[in-house]
Amino acid sequence: MTSNAPEPTAVPADTSAPKTAIDAVVIGAGFSGIYMVHKLRELGLTVQAFEAGDGVGGTWFWNRYPGARCDVISIEYAYTFSPDLIEEWDWTERYPSQPEILRYLNFVADRLEVRPCFQFQTRVVSASFDDAAGQWLVTVDSGEVTRSKYLVTAVGCLSTSMTPDFPGLHGYAGEVYHTADWPSGGVDFSGKRVGVIGTGSSGVQVIPLVAEQAEHLTVFQRTPAFSLACGNRALSDQELRDFKDGIEEHKARSKASPTGQYTDTLAESALDHTPQERQAIYEDRWNRHRAIDLIACYPDLFANREANETIAEFFRSKIREVISDPDLAERLSPRTYPLGAKRITLDTNYYQTYNRDDVDLVSLREQPLETFTENGIQAGGVNHELDAVVLATGFDAITGPLLSMDIRGIGGRRLTDKWSDGPTTYLGIAVDEFPNMFMLTGPGSPNVLTNVVCAIEQHVEWTGDFIAELERRGASRVEPLAHESRNWTDDAAELAEATLYPEGDSWYTGANVPGKPRVIMSYVGGLDAYRRICDEVAADGYRGFAIA
Ligand code: N01
Asked: How far is the CA of 347 from the centre of ligand 1 (A)?
């Protein structure tokens, strides 16, 4: 450990050349990477960080499709560790748009002066643990290799896009865009016949804006979403002031909540109330325009299918209020999975878009997508001529960004092999046989089932404290005990089985990626409980880790 953060050190590809090892490599410049770099520098460690994009932002750098917006309200989707950052930043809208989140992250990166630690436009392709030296060798796409004691992955959960292997896609002559890799200069769909495949969060957001511009829009839907009108609006100066003045209370409430988002969950079962009582309660919460207020309204909504059906039907009734054609309303109504088993989407004018004469819906369950042709998509025997196609087909989530790098631990053990049946981790932070590696929002942590910024702050702070303790002890090496990883993973799986998540074919479970092991990759026990467990592990001398 050195006392001051020098300029980042990168060493040439010749691995026989002597290398100046640094303390830590951090991969990624999103919310977690920015804060982790700051934290490590505060500890006096030397840090080299890598980011594939040419700026900070992580998933918010690439997901710049029209309509991209967060599903957590802006004032809560922000760091809380620094009073200065809170005081100096003013959000303009209740739900922040992608450009505003990107401006925020640039502001934070400047304010914390972390930018010099990052090498941008640089993708990490592999990382292997040199057992003899007790160091990681991190190789980037230029071939450069950096040696470091610690490896911290801050790669995000939704940063590896997923393009299905559609027959004929390569022979299609029109334009193809993926929402998660949108051209930085934008796209003009004026006068074009456009197809959108996918109706998850990205599809539901992009569809209304493409419809406004295109000559004609065809939406190809495999599974309808449960969508909540987000009721976005400008924030007033008074609201911002009140939030800042009450920040300590906000922090305490979000820390005590399972998702990092406070809501007033009722004590009764949903089934204890009459349909009329439930209707009034759901209606009130619908008008709060916050998904957590609905899904966590009753304690059993996500544990009991019958209770869940009461709120699922409420959402369907909202579709029927907007869509006058009963057949179309039914095709847009989710019936095959419980509400919440796929992520609830937040929209602006999503259902209204289907009332336009220049928008068609193709239900792929009834009319399966057979092939792309040279000039469009053939589904159910019908050829839809299209000048452009938008793939809103999502991500190889959570494990995808980690496994897209060739990470090798002790004895060259590949992470892809270790996780061939699904990820095993201790606390979602560390993996046995992969010493000195820490994952932020990794599989087995609460990650995407929370306001992820809260989860990130907890992870960065806990990991930072752990690394500080390792340095204080003069430790050279740390890894979790194999049986602790197994226990953590098994216990997390058992908790997940008691919820309704297994009933949805979603990216939460890996079911959206053909061939991916079907495992619930998040800790469902709540961020509050998880925080307590992590704190107890630390208080117990980092129980479960072998420290050399
Ligand atoms: O991805 P998704 P996303 N043939 O996986 C369909 C976050 N996010 O990018 O459901 C035909 O949810 C697939 O169909 P099905 C947020 O956490 C947040 O939309 O698998 N269709 C589905 O409709 C979100 O949950 C925000 O049957 C195929 C769609 O593509 C997460 O990112 C905004 C197909 C993919 O939906 C992912 O959202 C954007 C195939 N072969 C994203 N393969 C906000 O904060 C897939 N599909 C608001």
From this structure: 14
Q: Using a 6 Å cutoff on CB, does residue 153 contact ligand 1?
A: no
Q: Is the distance from CB of 21 to CB of 443 less than 8 angstroms?
A: no
Write down the pLDDT at residue 414.
98
Instruction: Choose the final residue of a domain: 362, 391, 420.
Output: 391
- In the reported structure, the alpha carbon of residue 148 is separated from the centroid of ligand 1 by a whole-number distance in angstroms of 36
pLDDT for the residue 204: 98
Whether 73 is in the pocket of ligand 1, judged by its Cβ within 6 Å, is no
Name the residue with the closest Cα to ligand 1, atom 41.
164
Give pLDDT < 70 ranges for the chain: 1-20
Rounded distance between C-alpha atoms, residue 296 and residue 294, angstroms: 5
Counting DSSP H helices and E strands in the chain, the numbers are: 17, 20
Pairwise CA distance, residues 445 & 448, whole Å: 9
307 three-class SS = helix
From 392, 17, 127, 80, select the one nearest 249 (Cα to Cα).
80
Instruction: Looking at the structure, tell me whether residues 211 and 88 fall in a common domain.
Output: no
Same domain, 450 and 351: no
Domain presence at residue 401: yes
In this structure, what token pair is assigned to residue 84? 């200065």
Question: Ligand 1 centre and the CA of 399: distance in Å?
Answer: 16
Q: Is 436 in the pocket of ligand 1 (CB under 6 A)?
A: no
* Confidence (pLDDT) at 21: 86
pTM, two decimal places = 0.95
Domain extent for 136: 22-161+396-547
pLDDT at residue 498, as a whole number: 93
Report whether residue 507 contacts ligand 1, using a CB cutoff of 6 Å.
Answer: yes
| Same domain, residue pair 336 and 451 | no
Which of the listed residues 201, 372, 506, 507 should we mutate to test ligand 1's pocket, taking the one with most ligand atoms within 8 A of CB?
201
